[in-house]
């Protein structure tokens, strides 16, 4: 499929012809998602009309050539960027690197497999930029949301069990802390980076657990779709990685509490 040249309808230039940077970055961690790259780009292009945006694909050296497809698009449209990671793997760490590469004040995270509803992205950006929330979550567990796209009972069990555990550990009530689809103020995320475990798949939960002050959070309903193309990343290691993340965060809390006690 041919790729059109970059649209400039949403770009803003100053008197010297300099193009303004993005207001909204969408981070897409991916592995073996070559067939989803352009369809996802086209879907986002239709969905976001009010903000200058960019897509940052973070690819863990996929053998199917995902990064080559990303770079092909990037040559034709400057709203697409690709980060290639060699010798390291993991969704959470990929998201962290993607967000740290962004200059936009608001960043979103979504999967590269077309299971997240791109039409929600603009509402997420609105919630933060217009309504002053810190985090906007695409939620399967509020009215109007649904988990229908989960592939099997094992994934459903992991998701539901994780939610029940996580809700005891968070500083703010969240119905779907295991969601992989959310937007956040970049400044808040960056301030949290040194406290993140960076383990496993649940970067939203990791981020919420380490907040020192209660963030303003809103949840927006979405229906989790069936996979379009590519391979599922869920396997037996996910449960272990989830446990490691919880352990790391609890250990860090204990250390911080001990240090605070010594200083008083």
UniProtKB/TrEMBL annotation:
GO molecular function: dolichyl-phosphate beta-D-mannosyltransferase activity
Cellular compartments per GO CC: membrane
Keyword Transferase applies: yes
Superkingdom: Bacteria
One Pfam family from the record: Glycos_transf_2
Gene Ontology annotations of biological process type: glycolipid biosynthetic process
Keyword Glycosyltransferase attributed: yes
Domain (Glycosyltransferase 2-like): residue spans on this chain: 25-189
CDD domains (UniProt xref): DPM1_like (cd06442)
Disordered: region residues: 1-21
Keywords, in A-Z order: Glycosyltransferase, Transferase
Similarity comment: Belongs to the glycosyltransferase 2 family.
Name recorded for this polypeptide: Polyprenol monophosphomannose synthase
């Amino acid at each position: 499929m041919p790729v059109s040249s970059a649209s400039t309808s949403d770009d803003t230039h100053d008197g010297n012809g300099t193009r303004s940077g993005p207001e909204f970055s969408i981070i897409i961690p991916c592995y073996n998602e070559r067939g989803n790259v352009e369809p996802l780009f086209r879907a986002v292009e239709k969905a976001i009309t009010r903000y200058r945006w960019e897509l940052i694909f973070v690819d863990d050296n996929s053998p199917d050539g995902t990064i080559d497809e990303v770079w092909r698009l990037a040559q034709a449209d400057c709203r697409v960027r690709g980060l290639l990671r060699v010798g390291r793997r993991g969704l959470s760490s990929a998201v962290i690197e993607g967000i740290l590469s962004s200059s936009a004040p608001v960043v979103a995270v979504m999967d590269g497999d077309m299971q997240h509803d791109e039409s929600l992205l603009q509402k997420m950006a609105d919630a933060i930029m217009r309504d002053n929330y810190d985090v906007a979550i695409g939620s399967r567990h509020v009215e109007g949301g649904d988990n229908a796209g989960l592939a099997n009972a094992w994934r459903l069990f992991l998701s539901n069990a994780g939610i029940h555990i996580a809700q005891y550990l968070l500083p703010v009530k969240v119905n779907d802390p295991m969601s992989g689809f959310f937007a956040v103020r970049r400044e808040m995320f960056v301030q949290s980076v040194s406290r993140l475990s960076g383990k496993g798949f649940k970067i939203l939960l990791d981020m919420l657990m380490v907040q020192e002050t209660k963030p303003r959070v809103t949840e927006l309903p979405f229906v989790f779709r069936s996979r379009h193309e590519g391979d599922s990343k869920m396997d037996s290691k996910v449960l272990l990685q989830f446990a490691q993340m919880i352990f790391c965060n609890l250990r860090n809390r204990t250390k911080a509490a001990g240090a605070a006690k010594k200083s008083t």
